Every structure is written in C-alpha cells, then in structure tokens.
Amino acid sequence: MVKVPILNDELVWNAEQQWDVPLYFHGQKGTLQFGVAILNEAEEYGGEWVYVYGLWLTGTRKHLVVARTSPETFESVHTWRYWTGNSWSTNIWESVPIAYDVLSELSVSPNTLDPQGGWILVYGHGSLDHQQIALATAQKPFGPFSSPTLVYFCPEGDASTGTYAYNAKAHPILSSEDSLLVSYNVNARHWETHVWHADVYRPRFLWLRRL
Known about the structure:
This protein is mostly beta strands. It has helices spanning 41-44, 191-196; strands at residues 2-3, 6-7, 10-11, 17-18, 24-27, 30-40, 50-58, 61-69, 81-83, 88-89, 106-110, 119-125, 132-138, 149-153, 163-170, 179-188, 202-209. Helices cover 5% and strands 45% of the residues.
C-alpha cells in the first residue's frame, strides 16, 4: 500500500509511505488478489464505505470479488470485510464472485446511462488479441452484476504484430450526466512493432451515451 499526503492540492512525494499488505492469497481454491479497482463511495457519492475490488483466479479465468471498509480504517487491512453473497465476512476465502470472466483492470461507478441509476461495471472481455469492452449493471456496488453487454470491439488487436488492447475502464469524473467516458490501452509484445508504429502505445477513448 502507498500513502501520499496532499497539501494545497499537491501530492507531497517526499512524505510518501509504503508498506506490505496481505491481499494476495494462493490456496486450493485458486488465487485471490485485491486492488484492481477502488470505489470511494463515502467521499465521492455520499455513501458510507470504500469498496476495494479484487480477482479470484481459477485456471485462466478471473472473477470479480469485493471487500469494503470505512475511510477511517482503510489503511488497516484487518478491518476489511469480504462479500459472501449474503453478508460481509472477516474471512477472505468466503468471498464469492459478483461478476465473471473479467480482466485485470476495470471500474465500478454510478450508472449514468440508466435513468433508474444503480452501478455500472466497465471492463475488458475476451482475449487480449480479440479484446471487447463490456459493461454490466447492478443495484448495489457489491453486485451481483448482470450478464455482460458487449459495447465495443477494439480493432487494434493483431496476433501477427503482437498488438493487443487491455485495461478498459470508465472515468466518471470526466463524464457527464448522460454520457460515460471509457478508455482502454494498446501495447505490443514485439519491439519492432513500436519502432515502425510509434503511436501504438497510448490510450484510446470512446463515449458511451444514454439512449
């Protein structure tokens, strides 16, 4: 975990602190890791909690799980509670997926695309070479989320050049009341691709709009 104070709207880097936290577990049920996304509902949306999203890795599949804590106790990981599908538990291994087959970066934010509100999960779906952007919705930030709706195919993926798309997520702070700004990144596995196509390694952006 990294902590950087803010003074007069500036990050005070010379006061930065880092310490290890027990948020990576490997066992018979698979691997659990937390930190793929954070939703500060307490500060940003008038709620009570900070939600920290993680991955349950089983084989090649990644499923979304979630923990929560208060802003005051965020730094004390032993205070975090893990969603079991019915309640919040102190046992990380009682976590259950709230969405399935996600990738390693994503976002959860208020669903501005639906007049009824709720929450929207934006994430990459499929393989890196054939990446699609998907969204799912829920009435609560801890799900369960709906089946995915595929909204965009990332055309940059090309196995022959090693180019791939990844890290799809929404940016609610840059969005409007009826539109959601979404980004994804593109990279390449081969150095030659970067040499001949210098604009490969950069983010791409698109708007999702309410109909």
